[in-house]
Amino acid sequence: MAGLSGGPLRFGRCSHAVVRALPESLCQQALRREKAKEVDFARAEREHQLYVGVLKNKLGLQVLELPGDESLPDSVFVEDVVVVCEETALLTRPGAPSRRKEVEAMKTALDSLSLNIVEMTDEQATLDGGDVLFTGREFFVGLSKRTNHRGAEILADTFKDYAVSTVPVADSLHLKSFCSMAGPNLIAIGSSEVAQKALKTMQQMSDHRYDKLTVPDDAAANCVYLNIPGKGHILLHRAPEEYPESAKVFEKLKDHMLIPIANTELEKVDGALTCCSVLINKSSQL
Amino acid sequence: MTTEVGSDTEVKESEKLRTNTGSENAGDAPESQKEQKPEIEEGSPLPTAATQRSPSSSGGKGISRFIPPWLKKQKSYTLSEPKDETQKRELPVSEEETVVEEGECHLSEETARSKGKLEDISENLQEAEVVGREEKRYVESQPAEEDKEIVSEATENKQDTEDGKRETKEVQTNEVKVERVLQKTPKKIRIVQAKVVLLDGIEYSCDFEKKAKGQVLFDKVCEHLNLLERDYFGLVFQDHTDQKNWLDSSKEIKKQIHNLPWLFTFNVKFYPPDPSQLTEDITRYFLCLQLRQDIASGRLPCSFVTHALLGSYTLQAELGDYDPEEHDSGYIREFQFAPNQTKELEEKVVELHKTHRGLTPAQADSQFIENAKRLSMYGVDLHHAKDSEGVDIMLGVCANGLLIYKDRLRINRFAWPKILKISYKRSNFYIKIRPTELEQFESTIGFKLPNHRAAKRLWKVCVEHHTFYRLVSPEQPPKAKFLTLGSKFRYSGRTQAQTRQASNLIDRPAPYFERTSSKRISRSLDGAPVGIVDQSLLKDFPVVAGERTLEAAGQYKLKDEEGRDLDGDIAKMPQLEDGKIYSLRVNGENIYVRHSNLMLEELDKTQDELLKHQASISELKRNFMESTPEPRPNEWEKRRITPLTLQAQGKFTFQTEESSIGTSRTIKSSHETLDIVEKKQAEVGIAETVVTDDTNRGKIPFGGGESQKMEHLSKKDSSSLSSNSSSSESEDEVGEYQPHQQIMQDTIKEELEENETIKEEKHNSSAEVYVKFSEEVSPIQTAIEHKELTETLIQTNEASTKTPEKRKLRQLDDEGLKEEKEEDQPKLNGEASHIDLEISPQLICCSEPPLIKTEMVTISEASQRTEISTKEVPIVQTETKTITYESPQFDDAGDAGMLLSAQTITSESVSATTTTHITKTVKGGVSETRIEKRIVITGDADLDHDQALAQAIKEAKEQHPDMSVTRVVVHKESELEEEDL
User: Which region is the signal sequence (chain A) (predicted)?
Assistant: First the structure.
């Protein structure tokens, strides 16, 4: 095994993914920041299936698909309920009370992967996985409406090897609503003022200097990077039909295998690409 | 003596010293040493460091304490470092072994005798007196010569150098003797025994002269350890409060530990960011030992997995390959891998140990270190503190800068390049931050340490870390200045760059050393002070005036060096690329400021990028500098000081503290400030507030018509500037007064005083300003009246309404007069431009949160506006007053870091335009909402400025009851009336 995630070379390594089917209740009851258009459930399902299909078939990950739960309209966004880094999984305490039950199914799933599981029991703490950006070298935790200082603190206690810096997130749902990792050392970042401000904060907080990939659309800055042995750098990003200008930016990444994925429906309930999966690297050695 | 000779002397001395050391006869150390010490340090900071090191780095370091005072004195005067360096490098390698032996050989019988005595006595930690005059001479002079020879033999390959050395030595000997004769006094030699707990938990004790400097002991320990790459290490002692202090090698031990037991621990002081660059395995081994301590004690937190991995490397290094027969289940329990070691962890460690088969101990150590260095807290020296809101935080000093933690979360970070100045006053610790794009001013952030000593310790650690990691060579301690306060402490050891160079020259076969079991470490953790947690550096620099009192303030300006000492090599080393030394300096204080403009986080950039960036920055810098008063100090002084004083009729003085700016003028004004500070508020007296008044009324006759123009222009400018928010304040804030608001002067004063009280809590300096400000008010008015200045602060339209007559006249005159005026007053133009630009605002700084100090740097404002105002200035007399309110706000986003939001609101009424710029930032856990209001009031001569000001302040307060006024800058522009013309 390699300690400390083995550095940037191993960043993005992934063997397993956890996803969850979307319940029909999502259309009506899922939390959203602003009333937008109606979610087309059929289309949302199709898009999600495509997403899962890419992980499973195209990338060859072992995908654990949790069943949907009509009582948990937001449960498709599995990212928020757990933070996995190396062999340790921190089950979160989501900021939205209605989502706290989502954790249970995830716990069961992770048990089967024999990860070290840490639960966030502190009632003062809230943390959404969507606010956690792991760069391979350190964590940034967005302090948003969903995530508080105590939650970040518990995350820091859980992943002691890494620096955990807090980033204020004012006008977005999550930190990763406008950014994500697009490569081992590459932060994809939206162009909005909020996003740029957050990026500045992260740059100041870090001893390391990251490259940045600025895309015109905040939503498009949320992409999924994977590093699959034999396949190299893989990037799931929003489709050109949705964000043509941002897609052009991604297309400049020559080293990446680019996989455009539409996410039009879940976006209406503030869902982004990273939200829909939990990526885990179970190294065979341990 | 000439410099050269001096340097040689040093070398020689050191050699001599070695011999002496060998004898262990401390007979030489004279009492006078003490007295001379100050000179040494002051006079030749650089040389001292080098010299002490060079000779001593070879075997004979311990000896230096035996150096007779006069010898040391000579040292201090040695200026020729470069020479020494070359010699130095050679010495360490070849001379070590020989030196010691030599020393012993040379010892005279007498010495030996005395030695024997001394030893007996010293064991009991008693002090023995030896009258060593004669012996000394004998020992010294003879050994010196012999040493030369020996040395030369030892360093066969370096013949050339040696020759040089010899010659010099001889010269020196003579001198030395002479001095000796002159200075002889009966000396008492007191010998003490010190105990040093080494990293493997073993206690090492040695005897040496009581007056020895820290270096002597340190060198002894390093010799004992056979360690050459020493600069990463240091000795620590615990004070009465159990705080850990670094032993200053340049200062006498006795003075540092006072009455504490002579008990030290040997520790890593500077954690190498890239340990693989260390030359010797033995160095890495000691680093390993330190890290194991750090980890086992919990100082260096790591996850379960990492504990297991690191533990397994420890086993591999110390036990070799896993052997199922030898290593039964119990073998591991004697090791401590983690603060809370579980069975599960031990099992994991064993499991991993099995996988390391074949790794040599050195390889295992390397693996250990490579993993440990990635831990986020590697090399971070933590200090407890509180932020301005009294929230507990931790300040972490590391190679890259200063980290701020709240609980376990990093909430802010200030890389060294971002820090312009580090200072402490009492128990407060301040860093001055380079302005960001969103701020025009350098901001100062304060932290509250538990006590004065803690603040000073932190300050010193910062100074040392910055110097070690960022500079090419240590900075010289500030020279004694008139009115200097505070600590002159500087890091005197080698920097990382230097030590790397030196270790490149290490050319010895890898020394054999035994890896002692870590078991011992864990044992010693229980009892002995091995694991020293808070490593704070308490080095007291001798003869620093300020240090006597608790009030002592230390400041440290961060300066990036150009690699002056290390020639070509520097360029290659990323850390060294900081840039140039800017002489922006702070008045009268010994402050160590680094201007690393050029080094903004560029470490990871390529050379080209760096250069480009540097170029652009230096361009900016140049512009900035050019526009600052520096180039024309005289004019400034005249304007600011003389006229004002006159106006004030002796009542009020203008303080110009261009802390960050000017040089020449600064001196005068700053001194003033200092005085004031001492008188009024000796407690705090920081001087970074700039109070300037540049009203040149009376001096400059104005043409009425043109002034209007000016105003228009300036308004325009200001508006545009304000939108950018990057422009300098004063410009934007061409103040216009609202005639409507009538408030009595008293009110103003009251308001001001209120502010004062608020401020007084923590920043005296600001308070001062206030006082002055209030004083100013009346004088200004009077002055205005006398001179009958029309306040043109106003837009023409409005003005005209109110004083139609005047306006008209002016306008009429305008056209006709313009040309004349311009021609007539060429002088004025020049001066006038200054006025506008520098508009040196009167700054009232008050910061409510005790710790946050807002500095008003007037300088910046002057810079870019020059062009704009230049034209118009000549015509109009301008008084500038800008009102700015800054105050930290305690808002919900306490945890956040950095800039939260910024917005600009502009509202206009008939007679006033208010621009409100709101910036929310969080720094170091301190959330700060800064509201800058620019109120442009247009009015006529009759306008009561003070009232307007008071009103503005009042309104601001009413609007933001929860905030405090941090700064008030009044920018008045007044025009002379036609009568004057």
Answer: none
Which of B80-84, B228-232, B375-379 shows the lowest per-residue confidence on average (mean pLDDT)?
Answer: B80-84
In B175-206, which positions are buried (b, 16+ CB within 10 angstroms) versus exposed (e)? Answer: bbeebbeeebeebbbbbbbbebbbbbbeeeeb
Residue A238 known to bind ligand: no
Which residue shows structure tokens 């000073």? B456
Subunit contact B374:A207, Cβ cutoff 8 A: no
B897 to each of A155, A170, A201, B680, how far by Cα in Å?
A: 18, 12, 7, 36
Residues B559-615: tens digit of each pLDDT: 544 333 333 333 333 333 333 333 333 333 333 443 333 233 333 334 444 444 444
Q: Output the pLDDT for position B696.
A: 35
Closest CA to B707 of B373, B972, B470: B972
Is the dihedral angle over the CA atoms B309, B314, B317, B322 positive or is it negative?
A: negative
pLDDT of res. A258: 95
Contact B211, B33 (CB under 8 A): yes
Distances (CA, A) of B29 to B10, B60, B131, B211, B297: 16, 16, 10, 7, 40
Rounded to 5 degrees, what angle do the CA atoms B564, B161, B14 make? 80
What angle do helix axes B45-57 and B69-77 make, rounded to 10 degrees?
120
Find which of B291, B295, B305, B609 to mutate to test the A interface (most A CBs within 10 Å of its CB): B305
Amino acid symbol at B64: S
Q: Does B413 contact A206 at a Cβ distance shorter than 8 Å?
A: yes
Per-range mean pLDDT, top range of A41-45, B490-494, B844-848: A41-45
Q: Does B407 touch chain A (CB under 8 A)?
A: yes
- Asked if B262 and B195 touch (Cβ cutoff 8 Å), the reply is yes
pLDDT at A262 over 90: yes
Residue B301 has pLDDT above 50, yes or no: yes
Q: Which residues of A are catalytic?
A: 174, 275
Contact B373, B232 (CB under 8 A): no
Give the predicted TM-score (pTM) of the model: 0.56
- End-to-end alpha carbon distance in chain A: 7
